[in-house]
Amino acid sequence: MSAHEHLWMHFSRLGAYKDTPPPVIARAEGPYIWDTAGKRYLDGLSGLFVVQVGHGREELANAMSKQAAELAYFPIWSYAHPKAIELAERLATLTPGDLNNVFFTAGGSEAVESAWKLARAYFRKTGKPLKHKAISRSIAYHGTSMGALSITGLPALKQDFEPLVPSTMRVPNTNFYRRPPGSGDTPEEFGVWAADRIAEAIEFEGPETVAAVFLEPVQNSGGCFPPPPGYFQRVREICDRYDVLLVSDEVICAFGRLGEYFGADRYGYQPDIITVAKGLTSGYVPLGAMIASDRLAAPFREGTTSFTHGITYGGHPVGAAVALANLDLFEREQLLAHVRANTGTFRSYLERLNDLPIVGEVRGDGYFFGIELVKDKATKETFNDEESERLLRGFLSKALFDAGLYCRADDRGDPVVQLASPLICTEEHFAEIERVLRTVLTEAWNRI
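RE: above sequence
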């Protein structure tokens, strides 16, 4: 085996690297990364929707070093440590409403897993033991552990691992561009239609059996579907009507990606649980959390009851220290205001690409955008499987990278290019993104 073949890369076709080693990223600074040959690329995806504050921030590295020297590891199983306490308190002050109970994990899949386990345990403890089912949206990604994968709405990701955890069902997502006939002519009408499908699913399954609805503020998979106006408000009403928990999966959307600490604040709704990871530490150390309302924590604060769930690295001291330093940096550099002030400029540069015949729609919010690619703008005709394979994997991903832009070309829904640059990016970076995309997408069209 070649040296690189010992590394089993994630979500990768290992056969593609049998004779050719994968790109190797050796260092990074600000919004840029460099490979081992010294070539520079703009990190248009923040690693993996993660590096909010940019690469190479010494204050985060210093926080890591200081904490590791003081207390590198201790579990939060019946014990606590100062940084976990401090971070939990700080997060509770930032979350909307009474989401004051922070259960730390090591990442996003574990946060989603924890949310579903809490929903089931809560209803058992409060006399509704049949409430265990989870609803999510088609094409939505919620993680890879067996529970989170069961909630995920991407059949192709599940096939090799089925049967999964039973009792999950899918409802339509908020892709207005590809809305089905009869689902409304305006975003507002479409939002009502999409939310009402959740009520329909709850009724069909039986409200006494449904525990939670898992929704991202802006759905990632499929290419950045923002919620139509009023959508989340109606979903909240539906959840209240049927006593179903609303879980806001913010592993991508939290910590500035949409210009607020939480997407729930961006769109004005109150979840029962928020799941986070990624931007919590800007990726410098793995850390995630499930943040629950006081109502959900109450049964576990009495007598001998406990939530029999835990994770070895949840609330890791080094991770918590870095998260605190990361939040300090957010405040000092006013990153939320920066994203809000610049999201229109980012969008405007991407919308310049609408003059290309291959661009069907630009959509998204904050520093989180998707560009859907089409074969025919007028009819919205998309690419077939063979064309998509040849276009995305055969050309686009490598061509964009070779041109100096690291981003995502994805076809888990219809073919899209996704951009989620570090929150420190400014107009010069948006212009650079547009230049590369224009060149490469023009070439892609010529190859069709």
